Amino acid sequence: LPGSGNTVKGSRLSALFEHPLYTRPLPPLIDEDTLFNVNTDIRFDPKAAENPEWNGEGKDGDYAPTGEMSSDSYPNWLRFHIGINRYELYSRHNPVIDAMLKDLVSQRITSVAMKSGGTQLKLIMTFQNYGQALFKPMKQTREQETPPDFFYFSDFERHNAEIAAYHLDRILDFRRVPPVTGRLVNMTKEIRDVTRDKKLWRTFFISPANNICFYGECSYYCSTEHALCGKPDQIEGSLAAFLPDLALAKRRTWRNPWRRSYHKRKKAEWEVDPDYCEEVKQTPLYDSGTRLLDIMDMTIFDFLMGNMDRHHYETFEKFGNETFIIHLDNGRGFGKHSHDELSILVPLSQCCRVKRSTHLRLQLLAKEEFRLSALMEESLQTDTLSPILIRPHLEAMDRRLRLVLQVLADCIEKEGYSNVVEDDLLVEGLNTGTAPQR
After folding, report:
1. CA 84 to CA 77: how far, in whole Å?
2. What is the distance between the alpha carbons of residues 122 and 158, in angstroms, rounded to a whole number?
3. Contact indicator for 346, 258 with CB cutoff of 8 Å
């Protein structure tokens, strides 16, 4: 993983990842717990797939794995897919993730297409090893804050927020964000010249300042007024590794019970009913299992980033209701460092529930020896486009972490530790170095 293998001794990140809270093993995995069973699944036999690009030599002399080869010889993106299970998108110290991110930065882009749907332009990029990633181009500089009069649903998506969200999710030990890296792309050679998408190709032009620009097609911010321009033809963007194709691994989309109204005047039910969580707790899906606690994890993650735009969430269909929530689409985080959007924390303050593992990790990240802002800064230094966040955003995370812990402390005082903190640490006697508050 970036930031774990290649940091100096004395690294806070390495110390964090060696802490007992970050070394707990997964429950034993059976076939139902893995997204793919590589040994018996015909889809992973390239010969069975009869895809000429997978047999022998690739188009440009890049060797693709053949049917006789083991899964170790598969490209890193496929090894990432094979590693997905009921409990995590990727394991903590999996070298494949670091290798895959390096591929996204260095591999030649062989084709580009626009992603349909959405208010803003996103590109699907395919690489020489047949891996794919979602490219979100730079829309704002690091220093620009979201204007105070912008509604959350008309805010720009920020490429650096996507990158920072991946690092934050990993430091929180959720590992529910598909890996993301930054890349500097040549708009002429790596987008215009390799796209077969005529609609995209037609939107390229040269600006009065002699820069290459394009704007693509989408429902909101795709026009010459919102064109993306290079300097003269280089553009920054985030590349998020694709999840397995929906034909191979179906995902379910769920409505977030605390979704916003997406209306300029109307309020959502949770904003006007302080007992709204009691209603949610009685509905199927949230009345048993871990889903409500997973929503609390997502709430904390979003609050630390300042992301108000979580209307839906997804899970892998194969794992039913007992699985993690995938934290997709984080581009509207890190918009305002000068403002803490307390409404994002409403699910936590209404429900007063949290996993013990999450609570202990939050306490750990608030300690001076670790400090969330310092861990994020160290982790983000590994990205090609570093620095990813300016200091005020890093400091805002420390401030917000204290606010989360205060909400939980108030809950515990009001309702009692055992009614608030759900013990998910099945390993008895785990020495976490962080005493539970009683």
Report:
1. 11
2. 11
3. yes
* Cβ atoms within 10 Å, residue 262: 12
Helix/strand number for the chain, H first, E second: 14, 12
**Per-residue confidence in pLDDT tens, the chain, 438 aa:** 444 444 345 799 999 999 999 999 999 999 999 999 877 665 665 444 444 444 433 444 444 444 455 677 899 999 999 999 999 999 998 999 999 999 999 999 999 999 987 778 899 999 999 999 999 998 777 667 666 655 555 567 789 999 999 999 999 999 999 999 999 999 999 999 999 999 999 999 999 999 999 998 888 778 888 888 888 889 999 999 999 999 999 999 999 999 998 777 788 889 889 999 999 999 999 999 999 999 999 999 999 999 998 999 999 999 999 999 999 999 999 988 999 999 999 999 999 999 999 999 999 999 999 999 999 999 999 999 999 999 999 999 999 999 999 999 999 999 999 999 999 986 433 444 444 443
Cα-to-chain-centroid distance, residue 393: 18
Instruction: List the one residue out of 242, 3, 18 whose CA is nearest residue 126.
Output: 242
Distance between CA atoms of residues 412 and 294, nearest Å: 19
Q: Answer yes or no: 309 catalytic.
A: yes
As a whole number of angstroms, the distance between CA 24 and CA 173 comes to 11
Report helix angle 391-415 to 356-366, nearest 10.
130
Q: 241: annotated binding-site residue? A: yes
Q: Work out the angle between the directed axes of helices 291-305 and 391-415 (0-180°, nearest 10).
A: 140
Crossing angle of helices 356-366 and 291-305, rounded to 10°: 20
Tokens of 342: 């307390």
Do the annotations mark residue 350 as ligand-binding?
no
**What Å distances lie between residue 107 and 76, 164, 200, 310, CA to CA?**
12, 22, 22, 32
The one catalytic residue in 309, 398, 423, 424 is 309
242 is in an annotated binding site: yes
Backbone angles phi, psi at 129, to 5 degrees: -95, 15
Q: How far apart are CA 110 and CA 71, in angstroms?
A: 24
DSSP 8-state symbol, 43 = G
Q: What is the DSSP letter of 33?
A: G
Classify residue 140 by burial, with Cβ atoms within 10 Å: 0-12, 13-18, 19+.
middle
